[in-house]
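SEQUENCE-TO-STRUCTURE ENTRY
===========================
Question of interest: how does this chain fold, as expressed in backbone structure tokens?
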Amino acid sequence: MPSLLVKLPDGDGREIKVVKTKTSIGRSSRNDVCINDPFASRLHAEVRYDGSSYFLTDLGSANGTFCNGGKVVGTIAFNIGDVIQIGETRITLIADPVTTPSNELMLSDLNLHAEAELTIASSKHSSGIFSVLEEVTNSSKGNVLGQTIISQPKEKERKKDHLLAVVSKVGVTLLLDASLDDTLKRIMELVFEALPVERGFLFLSSQWTPNRDSKRRMRAKPNELVCKVARNAMKDLTGEEIKISRSISEKVINEGTSVLTSDAAHDPRFQEMQSVVISQMRSIMAVPLAIGEEVIGMIYVDNPYATNRFNQDDLLVLTTMASVAAIKIENACLIEERIEKKRMEEELKVASEIQLRLQPLSPPRLPGYDMIGISFPCREIGGDYYDFIKRKNGRTLLALGDVSGKGMGAALMMSSLHAALHAQAQTPLKTAQIVTEINNYIFESSPENKFLTLFCAELDPITNQLFYSNAGHNPPILVSNDGSYRLLESGGLPIGIVDSITYEENYLVMQPGDVLVIYSDGITDSVNEIDEEFGEQRLIEVVRRYRARTASQLRDRVDEAITQFIGQCLPVDDTTIMIIKHY
């Protein structure tokens, strides 16, 4: 991905990756490339990428944008090696450097005299695997590096070797990357390989989600357990009814302890439990799946046979496997969450790129008029929409809409509005009729709780007539040359609320010096540190004070006023503005 190499007037330089469809440049902090150059406008220029080529657009800057020594008018092609000059700032589009793999080996000095530790110390809240390994290690207490143990019972040595072999096999097997479902199935396969199990179940809490940064501790509840794996020695038990002892599951989950009974039917702890008696289970083991103090589920195994009853060694093996498995389960969940997050980020990026391409590349150049438009979403994708659409009758349709809500839903609705407006603009319908047709379309194709506001106008550059209809939008401000102003309110309800309504149309004649400002409520709803809104009146005063400036200079003054007003506060909504000045 190419980068913009920025050389500032003070000599400082930085490299900025061009990763977005639109990269804005200027003095305002809203820009992707913020340059502290006195000759730069607040919103000076932008670089766009259409998927194959780059383009440079001057946003009506006061002192101009220059590329390779020539002044930029409108939009031009922008290629690798081209240099943008904004005041004393130089910005060069550079390609990614070609990297080659290196076989160089870097070695650090290591202290090789440290003695190996023979035991693993576990903290009070350590995972169960450390406790088990410590127990195994302590069975050979007294062994010193370089010495040979003279005598140790063969049976104890065999058990220790078996347990370490199980830990090794589980660890190596679970090192492989796999989905959460595959990980859970593999865990139970290892349980059946290591133990004389007839039935086995793995449960996870439906309320648990991995969060390494959270200090909150939770314990699963028995009624929140969801069976993720159910099988017997021959096959999976998919779709079959699962019956296990509630008393055992409650003990494991509520107390975080392992349970072993070699003869459940005659165990005094469970004789009153019908689930145990009815199922005629002889031998049962259940161990928690725990990460520190956090119990996330359990492994439950049983068999009905008098032979091969579970014993303490089997419980130690199952507890060890559960301790390793719990860590792997958490990691598998975190990986899946990371993959899902990345997928969502990619989808948002694509949606943002599509949305930016729906915005006009540059305003039309009409004789006697100076126009500008810009939009800043407060999230990756926004619900604001603005457009300049040339009609077959030679007039230009001006539109600014604001969809209720934010995020993907608002963006999809905005795309529908864009398509509908461009289709209706090619018909001979008047402005109010276009708004009426769009209302019917949005009402039929959108959810009941979704609506949008829309200001739609048609400008005739020959007669200077402006026909408009306002569908519940913030009334645009028309400031005259003498400083007087009026609000354009005629129209009707927001789009998508009521079906089959007729919108009103009004008109005016633009006089030399008139300035029309169409905006979204993200501008007037901007709040400062004391939760005070910028408001309509402040916007009117800014427009009146700078009405003699060009459209782009007036846009910069509005942006400056909002930035100073909100201070360190973040935008609360998408901000969009269109300025049409007649001279």
Summary: The CA atoms of residues 56 and 76 lie 5 Å apart. Residues 312-358 form the longest helix (47 residues). The radius of gyration is 35 Å. The longest strand covers residues 294-303.
